[in-house]
Amino acid sequence: MEGTKKLNILITSGPTRGYIDEVRYISNKSSGQLGTAIATEALKRGAYVTLVHGVGSITPDTACLEKDAINRLTLIEIETVQDLSRLIRENLKGKTFDAIIHAMAVLDYTPEQPVNGKLPSQSSEITIRFIKIPKIIKLIRELWPRSLLIGFKLEAGIPHEELLKRACASLIENKADFVVANDQQEILGGKHPAYIINSQHELMATCNTKQDIAERLIEIVFHSVPKNTI
């Protein structure tokens, strides 16, 4: 559409895996539904969207998108955090993104060394050593220092004020422009309470559903990114 900002947005969404052996892995609780809602809203506003999603994630239903929107959507599937890191460093590095919305549930820890083959099932117990994974959002900020960056902070069963406090700490640590704070225990059925905080630690919006979050985040992106048009 003439006169409309054609922003280029990178969105990460869905789960990641860490392999224990060749048939078993750990993962996290993410369907990719929120990332898809965000991507769909961005497409509706005329943006070009690269959606990096975990295996098994919900992705936009292209049958429900206009042809122009389909042509502006790039889907990239990854499985492990190592896949994600490699994709960012080797395939996406050098590309220009006006905004990056890092909604993917990235593992914090992964098995130190996956076992070749399959662990025997006869043992009454096994011990697995986990190692911490470097934060992908820090890599994103390093490679795209000028892009608008939105991170997410998910906790479970903590007081509201503590949730906001940890979200602000995450925002500072990762040099993000906005952070979305949410509590896993509050995400029930169609409800997804979330709190969007800016770099001044101000509460920008309180959302109640995934669609609310998607609409508000894309509003923020289009309001915050300089009004260059193509």
Give a verbal description of the structure.
The N and C termini lie close together (9 Å). It is globular and about 60 Å long. The model has no long low-confidence stretch (mean pLDDT 93). The strands form 3 sheets. It has an 8-stranded mixed beta sheet with strand order 5-4-1-6-9-10-11-12, with helices on both faces. It has one domain (8-114, 126-224): CoaB-like (Rossmann fold, 3-Layer(aba) Sandwich). The chain has helices at 33-44, 67-71, 81-92, 136-143, 160-174, 210-224, and strands spanning 8-13, 18-19, 25-26, 48-54, 73-78, 99-102, 109-111, 130-132, 148-155, 178-183, 194-198, 203-207. It has 230 residues and is of the alpha/beta class.
Detail the topology: elements first, then pairings.
Layout: E1 8-13, E2 18-19, E3 25-26, H1 33-44, E4 48-54, H2 67-71, E5 73-78, H3 81-92, E6 99-102, E7 109-111, E8 130-132, H4 136-143, E9 148-155, H5 160-174, E10 178-183, E11 194-198, E12 203-207, H6 210-224
Helix pairs in contact: 1-6, 3-4
